């Protein structure tokens, strides 16, 4: 069955909304995509295998914001990135969700410590 909806965890949604509300991101989805990229760049050693992401998928709740896949990845670029990073997976948007949640959780830790903004200091 094709994936049609991506649902963030409650905590990831909260962090993405706070990032949006800061004015740094135009919307929470842009913040979530940033979280995914942040996770890949800075935490690859912890998320480099499909097994690790499948495990995290079981941990993260699905009580946050729902996004239609067409809104998340209109040009299928994210699906291509997931295929390149995790060639043994046939669920690119499940992994996208997990990476968004993971990255937003890490960014949320910085937010709680008052160290997230300005964001360029964390790059």
General description of the model:
By secondary structure, the chain is mainly α. The protein has one domain (5-122). Helix content is 61%, strand content 5%. The chain is built from 7 helices and 2 strands. The chain has helices spanning 10-21, 28-42, 44-47, 50-59, 69-72, 77-85, 92-112, and strands at residues 5-7, 66-68. A two-stranded antiparallel sheet has the order 1-2. Helix 1 crosses helix 2 (28-42), helix 2 crosses helix 7 (92-112) and helix 4 (50-59) packs across helix 7. The radius of gyration is 14 Å and the shape is globular.
Question: Number of DSSP strands?
Answer: 2
What is the SS-derived class?
A: mainly alpha
| Proportion in helices | 55-70%
Query: What's the multimeric state?
Result: single chain
The outline comes out as globular
Keywords summarizing the entry:
7 helices; 61% helix; 123 residues; mainly alpha; two-stranded antiparallel ribbon
Topology:
Blueprint (H helix, E strand, L loop, with lengths): L4 E3 L2 H12 L6 H15 L1 H4 L2 H10 L6 E3 H4 L4 H9 L6 H21 L11
Antiparallel strand pairs: 1-2
Helix pairs in contact: 1-2, 1-7, 2-7, 4-7, 6-7
């Amino acid at each position: 069955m094709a994936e049609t909806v991506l649902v963030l965890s409650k905590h990831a949604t909260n962090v993405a909304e706070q990032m949006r509300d800061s004015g740094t991101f135009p919307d929470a989805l842009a913040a979530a995509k940033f979280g995914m990229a942040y996770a890949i760049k800075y935490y690859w050693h912890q998320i480099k295998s499909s097994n690790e992401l499948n495990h995290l998928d079981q941990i993260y709740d699905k009580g946050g914001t729902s996004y239609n896949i067409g809104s998340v990845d209109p040009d299928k670029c994210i699906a291509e990135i997931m295929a390149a990073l995790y060639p043994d997976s046939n669920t690119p948007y499940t992994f996208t969700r997990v990476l968004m949640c993971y990255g937003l959780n890490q960014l949320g830790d910085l937010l709680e410590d008052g160290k997230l903004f300005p964001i360029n200091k964390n790059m």
